[in-house]
Design goal:
- It comes from Malus domestica.
- This is HMA domain-containing protein.
- Pfam families: HMA.
- The protein has helices at 13-24, 49-57, 94-104; strands at 2-8, 29-35, 40-45, 62-69.
- With 131 residues, it is of the alpha+beta class.
- It has a domain at 2-69: Alpha-Beta Plaits (2-Layer Sandwich).
- The chain has a four-stranded antiparallel β-sheet with strand order 2-3-1-4, covered by helices on one side.
- A hairpin with a 4-residue loop joins strand 2 and strand 3.
- The longest helix is centred in the first third of the chain and has 12 residues, at 13-24.
- The radius of gyration is 31 Å and the shape is flat.
């Protein structure tokens, strides 16, 4: 989990919405918050700061203020309960695994070629008499 704080040149709600939309497409995103007073965008999650800044620089002038681990809230410790031991998953036969792979990659035939019929005026007996 990373917390990235960026400074953006955002002036109104429309540009704020545009910046939030650009950032929201990233994978591993937990939360996005924008402080319009200080013009700071705070993003937390498992994200790459370089990719985040690259997306925003296409829209606005962007400066990185800080990159660091996200602060996690302290939770009350509950008494630990003993968990029953989990059974180990059964081993699959190599033939079954191969059959699953074969189903995924079934033969796909290329499309049939399109044949075009081109008629010339010289070969067509029903064409113009003058020609």
């Amino acid at each position: 989990m990373k917390k990235v704080v960026l400074k953006l040149e955002v002036y109104n709600e429309k540009s704020k919405k545009k910046a939030m939309k650009a950032v929201s497409g990233l994978e591993g995103l937990d939360s996005i918050s924008m402080d319009m007073k200080d013009k700071k965008l705070t993003v937390t999650g498992d994200i790459d700061p370089v990719e985040l800044v690259a997306r925003l620089r296409k829209l606005y002038h962007t400066e990185i203020l800080s990159v660091g681990p996200a602060k996690e809230e302290k939770k009350k410790e509950e008494p630990k309960k003993e968990e029953p031991k989990k059974e180990q998953p059964k081993k699959k036969d190599p033939k079954d695994e191969l059959a699953e792979i074969m189903r995924a990659y079934q033969a796909q035939y290329p499309p049939m070629p399109t044949y075009y019929c081109v008629r010339s005026a010289e070969e067509d007996p029903n064409s113009c008499v003058i020609c």
